[in-house]
Write a structure and sequence with these properties.
about 260 residues, alpha/beta, six-stranded mixed beta sheet, four-stranded antiparallel beta sheet, 10 helices
Amino acid sequence: MNPVIEVEGIVTRFGERTIHDGVNLHINKNEIYGILGESGSGKSVLMKEMIMLLEPNEGKVSVLGTALNGISFKEAQTLRTQWGVLFQFGALFSSLTIAENIEVQLKEYTNISQKMRTKLVSSKLALVGLDPHVGTLYPSELSGGMVKRAALARALAIEPKLLFLDEPTSGLDPIGARNFDALIVELRDLLGITVVMITHDLESIFSIVDRMAVLADKHVVAEGSIENVLQSKHPFVEAFFKNEYTKERFKEKIKDV
């Protein structure tokens, strides 16, 4: 094991409401790690704490060997260049073209020339399976699947070591979702990145996720490979993985459940 993210004893509160109460997990280098859980379990909150958009009330988060607690502004800026984020609905800037969206981080974190930025934009579009002309379009001119791929190109703009995905296949048709899954695996293998993804997509969970954490009751109630998670007797795990539909749909992968 080679952890690149470690979460220890995380407590998160919003007013009097406690979202996390002692969350622990670790994510290893080059794996595709899933975060799933019941509604309101704090999946997106946990991811935001990993990328410094939120700060937990208690506990420790370390990313690439750097503790986020008390991190300096300079250290935080450097660390942010090590990851890319794909938000659930893409979060592209509607007033910018796709090329300009991809260029945002290049302009913020590098000093490369416009000519080189243009070449990089084209290479990132090709990397996610989009034609060069897509760069001239606006987000409103793209299909849902193309928006996802364009947002992924932006997330990969500065060649990150970590890739965070929030419900990457939501809103896609089944074929588009499976193609997107295949793209994630291909990028992980090609670029050697670590992928952290929030998902409820059973196809993704069974086909591309290496390990996962299941959040419920303010804790991680199961963590590990799908085989490990299926051993859990927690009610949410039972309901999510062991219903009749899941057994029938994935009967070759779920045995003796």
